[in-house]
Amino acid sequence: MIELPPLPYAQDALAPYISAETLGFHHGKHHKTYVDTANRLIQGTAYEKLPLEEIIRKSAGKPDDKKIFNNAAQIWNHTFYWHSMAPQGGGKPTGKLADKIEQDFGSFEKFSEAFNAAGTGQFGSGWVWLTLAEGELKILATANADNPLTHGEVALLVSDVWEHAYYLDYQNRRADYLVTFLGKLANWKFAEQNFAHASEATKAA
Question: For the Manganese/iron superoxide dismutase N-terminal domain, which residue ranges apply (predicted)?
């Protein structure tokens, strides 16, 4: 059975950039609904006892399992998103990830511009990710529930660009929300840990 993970901080911890009201609806209603729906859909199927990531990988691209994929992937995406933010977050990364961003994008400012442009340009609902793929950092925009697990890429950081993630606080100003995400919310320690683990796994392979 898939369980709804708790937020890694208090519901009001990201205010004023993301309100307690937004987090309450987003986590307590939207995220919970994906968990409840996924559990109902996988009951009595071959997916029932599989880990969440395996459910996502095995159901991806299968028309008959599209609802299972959508709900399972959205559970994973949202959990990753909560950890991609932190109170007193934002600013710039440090260490090896900072060096890699400089190497692959030219500068942190150029990365920020590209990340915000990808998120703003994502038509409809979706996500914008910083990923590691074949040794290079990339920006990946995905629609709806899609995520890096189905693209063979390692997620380092993500921003949710579904309207319910920001509409109560930013209305239709997605661009402002994305600027605030990188400037005030991004959990670079989380991204740095993901980058370190991915780099170690690549060396060990």
Answer: 3-86
Residue type, 164: H
Residue ranges of the domains in the chain? 20-83, 95-204
- Helix then strand count (H, E) for the chain reads 9, 3
User: Is residue 205 pLDDT above 60, yes or no?
Assistant: no
pTM of the model: 0.96
26 annotated to a ligand binding site: yes
Task: Sort 19 into a burial class: Cβ within 10 Å, 0-12 / 13-18 / 19+.
Answer: middle
User: Euclidean distance between the first and final Cα of the chain, in Å?
Assistant: 32
Residue 160 labeled ligand binder: yes
Question: pLDDT tens digits for 35-60?
Answer: 999 999 999 999 999 999 999 999 99
Query: % helix / strand / coil in the chain, to the nearest 5?
Result: 55, 10, 30
164 is in an annotated binding site: yes
Q: What's the pLDDT tens digit per position in 118-127?
A: 999 999 999 9
Superfamily of domain 95-204: Iron/manganese superoxide dismutase, C-terminal domain (3.55.40.20)
Give the CA count within 13 Å in the CB-facing half-sphere of 161.
Answer: 29
- The topology (CATH level 3) of 20-83 is Helix Hairpins (1.10.287)
Phi, psi of 77 (to 5 degrees): -60, -45
pLDDT of 199: 86
